[in-house]
Automatic annotation (TrEMBL):
InterPro entries: Ran_GTPase-activating, RCC1/BLIP-II, Reg_chr_condens. RCC repeats lie at residues 174-224, 225-281, 282-331. Pfam families: RCC1_2 (PF13540). The lineage of its organism: Eukaryota, Discoba, Heterolobosea, Tetramitia, Eutetramitia. One of its GO terms (cellular component) is cytoplasm. SUPFAM superfamilies: RCC1/BLIP-II. One of its GO terms (molecular function) is guanyl-nucleotide exchange factor activity. It comes from the Eukaryota. Signal peptide: none annotated. This is Uncharacterized protein. It comes from Naegleria lovaniensis (Amoeba).
Length: 436
């Protein structure tokens, strides 16, 4: 299942209802969606693995069987169709031109390109890749192999990510390579020069699990669960309150405390000038620009340190648009805060909520119905002024596994408590219990 709300420019969001209206009346509809709305998929048998969105009203969808589909604005022919002839494409159009039928494992999207990773570990790109001095400009997916460093090829590629005019690739040994614009030192390379080739980052002293980019900043997660930040801190987006310089050009380690415990981070989300992170314990923390209330802290003041959002709530996922944030609780409720321009946070209101606000009642009924059918949305992805919520078959299985692990952990702790009690009462009973 796929749902969406927000700005529908270039038909990046196409509801089932609007598609039927177009068919009956021979008209084109691209109305903004101000509430959680079911969207059209090419087939009811679609199993979504991942959806990515950029800040130019475009999305790319990867299915479980390794096929790519696109929707929205076709900047720089990034979907594999000439953008003069096709300035946009309808959702969701197959976009595999040049991939030679290869199955895709992962996908990333920048403002002017799509990057695809095959099951064999090859990288293909379509569009203008990347920055003010593009390495490549192509109207079909083209193999990046000649431009991939030998060390990265030998290690193999584990993870790819792109946002705005930045791209990061992580090898299987945890090394981070970056390419694109670096005007604020967001690549952590110790300088402000753009990179038109993949460059190894050496300022993170551990293996890297993920990388995320804001407009002029970046946030990486290390194997330890700590985060590392670099780039512009003008609005506090790095979470460094005592930084005299407004930019940090070498990655800086950040520790987020909850009471006396250090939080380990499992996911990061970057807006244009704000950052939210999700801890392994299900807490969300925010920092940076807050002019629209996008930090979810019930005010409009910027933050220069990470602050906890709704401390009594456990979250499953988080994503950011340019000036808004969307969160999913453990039980599947979707909350949003910040700029509601074009219904970006799914509200029929004219103001910008400054604390996480549940989407409309009808939307929650849709979620409840989907949950009953084991099709509950598990993942969020935000573009500049729109949001997609989808059921990822891969993520769903991961959630089931985590729930089972949690149940087993609780059972193990109960058994330990029981064993401790029997040890205290009678060593003989303990011996009998242990042998069974």
């Amino acid at each position: 299942m796929l749902y969406g709300f927000g700005a529908n420019e270039y038909e990046v969001l196409k509801s089932s209802e609007s598609l039927l209206l177009e068919f009956r009346n021979n008209i084109n509809t691209n109305d903004d969606l101000f509430e959680l709305t079911p969207l059209t998929l090419p087939s009811c048998n679609f199993q979504i693995r991942k959806i990515v969105a950029n800040n130019e009203f475009a999305t790319a969808m990867l299915t479980m069987d390794g096929k790519l589909f696109g929707s929205g604005k076709n900047v720089a022919s990034m979907f594999g169709f000439n953008n003069e002839k096709y300035p946009s494409i309808k959702p969701f159009t197959w976009i595999g031109n040049g991939l030679q039928g290869l199955a895709i494992k992962n996908v990333a999207i920048g403002n002017r390109f799509i990057l695809a990773q095959t099951l064999l570990g090859q990288l293909f790109v379509c569009g203008s890749f990347i920055g003010s001095s593009p390495l490549m400009e192509c109207e079909v997916f083209t193999n990046l192999d000649p431009y991939v460093p030998t060390k990265l090829k030998n290690a193999g590629i584990e993870y790819i990510h792109a946002r705005y005019t930045h791209c990061g690739v992580i090898s299987r040994d945890g090394s981070l390579y970056v390419i694109g614009e670096n005007g604020c030192g967001e690549f952590g390379l110790g300088h402000y020069f753009d990179r038109n080739k993949f460059t190894l980052v050496s300022s993170i002293p551990e293996s890297v699990k993920s990388i995320n980019f804001g407009y002029h900043n970046s946030v990486a997660i290390g194997e330890s669960g700590f985060i590392y930040v670099a780039g512009s801190n003008l609005n506090g987006e790095l979470g460094i309150s005592n930084e005299e310089d407004s930019t940090v050009k070498v990655f800086r380690k950040i520790e987020i405390m909850n009471s006396e415990n250090i939080e380990k981070i499992q996911k990061t989300a970057c807006g244009m000038h704000h950052v939210l992170v999700l801890s392994e314990r299900g807490h969300i923390y925010s920092t940076g620009a807050n002019d629209f209330g996008q930090l979810g802290l019930n005010d409009f003041y910027n933050r220069y340190e990470f602050s906890i959002v709704m401390p009594q709530t456990t979250f499953r996922d988080v994503s950011c648009g340019d000036h808004f944030s969307v969160m999913m609780t453990l039980d599947g409720q979707i909350l949003a805060c910040g700029s509601n321009s074009n219904g970006a946070i799914g509200q029929w209101i004219h103001h910008n909520p400054i604390s996480p606000t549940p989407i409309l009642v009808d939307g929650q009924q849709l979620i409840a119905s989907a949950k009953h059918q084991n099709q509950q949305p598990t993942s969020l992805v935000c573009g500049n002024r729109f949001t997609l919520c989808y059921h990822s078959a891969e993520c769903f299985m991961d959630i089931i596994l985590k729930e089972k692990q949690h149940m087993l952990q609780c059972l193990f702790e109960q058994l330990q408590q029981h064993q401790n009690m029997t040890t205290h009462l009678s060593p003989e009973i303990t011996f009998h219990f242990s042998t069974r």
